[in-house]
Design brief:
Chains A, B: InterPro entries: HAD-like_sf, HAD_sf. Two copies of one chain form a homodimer. Chain A contains 13 helices and eight strands. Chain A is an alpha/beta fold.
Chain lengths: 308, 308
């Protein structure tokens, strides 16, 4: 196993991962799981990349909505546009995660997916995190990139299951995670098929299709994957249904919960501090069979550009 | 290219396929398409396997509903149960494709996906086609299996996009097509997340989620794949939106339409004969840039167990 998981400290979490992956991929062992059933699902915000002080896509919305307000200044006084244009984090958090995302996702109506993809990709290629002073896409967690590689080396198929917009994450998923777009499941808006002068396109509508959080995560996992995961990784109560669904597999399974307890190198938060609360999943981790990963204790590096 | 597409006769369709696939996978040519964008989508009923006299899943429903009627005899007189229990094809066709599938898909409410999968797989492993005298799953078209192999050899990622139930097709998609479950997009019902004595499961509901036909096909392609196909294959007006969406790619693209014109070896039908009408797609194939594949002229074998 050398060469894998180098940013993970020896400890319960790393041992649980290595033990689990070894057991399910050992064709001669009693816990073997056929390759096609080796499905792993990862939350994105706060699990694969930093979600503080608010989710990356909400920063994207700041810039998109500012563009829209140039064309239509009347938006400036209309809530919740106003909160976003003024980057009023308290007002945005007061909307709740679903409220904030519902608003943001439906502001792209009229765009084709291809045009949205260009906007999203161009923004992510350059936009910087205000505190950590690197690009948002450089705020992916190195230990998680190593875990994705470790799982793929053991012939897992890895999916992202995010409360954020699926199209937003897809615009960089191959580049930053090596995860193909069709293995990204996220929140979505409805679309309309249009034919204009013989050319057929999809167009985004201002109506939410699915807000991929809490009980909707396992529903979308079934809809998109058609198999129950045997490994899942999350960091909030929004991931709890997915984690418990995974732990109820008839195969051996592993459900991991990242605890952000590292104020020095990243952020320290739980409870209701963030837009994605972490209360029940942490309090009842033992009862639900979740393996808690401490950012402070279990990871010796967090970001790729930090020294080890 | 020898060893590929042996069941395809030399002709316009085979030449169009070979020419297209060669061009988009030639890294030095002007029509090169990166691997990640080599997405192919296939309809299932009537495109990959036989859909006559009615779709395979409706035969499955005959047997499932007979089981249900044993437990509740009052169903026998209730439409549309009655039509299915009496195998009254005319009455079923009168429901229309969406009506028939909506009814069938919503009769599995209360089942977990895992239990449905066992029922569906067990039935498909043995159930026989009434006229062709082989199992339904042996009614897959050999030339199409060769085409799937040809595309995969050129690093296409292949998806099924079916009006039938996604879960029904998934129960055999790996076995008969080599297509992973998460690359099967189909009609679906809504599901509910349930926890019972600490065990988390999904349960199918009696409410349609998506009927994956006509304009819904490109919408679901966007939702599940996040990329526009460059090759699509269908056989009815229900596939036309997907075919035109594909032909409107900014890359070179190929849209194929199978015409069932072989009464001797399979069936001959178009117009409104089948539950899936074929009118506009055939009449306007040239205008829309569709390549029509004639079962009679273009395929020298149809099923794997027939002599060449």
């Amino acid at each position: 196993m050398s060469g894998f998981l180098n940013s993970w400290n020896d400890g319960e979490a790393k041992r649980a991962i290595i033990d689990f992956v070894s057991r399910v991929s050992d064709g001669n062992g009693p816990d073997f799981v056929p390759k096609v059933d080796r499905i792993a699902t990862f939350d994105n915000d706060g699990t694969l990349w930093c979600e503080q002080p608010i989710q990356v896509q909400l920063f994207f919305a700041f810039d998109r909505l500012a563009e829209m307000a140039k064309a239509d200044p009347s938006l400036k006084d209309r809530p919740p546009f106003k909160a976003f244009l003024e980057r009023d984090l308290a007002a945005i958090k007061a909307l709740g995660k679903e409220g904030a995302f519902r608003f943001v996702l439906t502001t792209h109506s009229g765009e084709t997916p291809e045009n949205f993809d260009r906007l999203s990709h161009a923004w992510l290629a350059s936009a910087q995190h205000p505190k950590l002073r690197r690009r948002f896409i450089d705020n992916v967690y190195l230990p998680q990139l190593e875990l994705l590689d470790f799982l793929r080396a053991h012939e897992f198929t890895v999916f992202i299951v995010t409360g954020g917009g699926g199209d937003f994450v897809r615009s960089v998923s191959e580049e930053i995670y090596g995860i193909p777009r069709h293995q990204v499941i996220g929140s979505s808006v409805k679309t309309r098929f249009e034919i204009d002068e013989g050319r057929a396109d999809m167009v985004k509508l201002a109506e939410l299709g699915s807000f991929d959080d809490r009980e909707v995560k396992p529903a979308n996992i079934h809809l998109h994957i058609g198999r129950r995961p045997i490994l899942a990784f999350g960091n909030s109560d929004g991931d709890l249904a997915m984690l418990r669904y995974t732990k109820s597999s008839s195969y051996p399974s592993l459900a991991l919960l990242l605890h952000h307890d590292d104020a020095e190198r990243e952020y320290a938060y739980d409870g209701n501090f963030a837009l994605s609360p972490l209360v029940e999943a942490l309090d009842r981790a033992h009862e639900y069979g979740l393996t808690v990963v401490s950012m402070e204790r279990d990871w010796n590096r967090i970001f790729g550009d930090q020294p080890g």
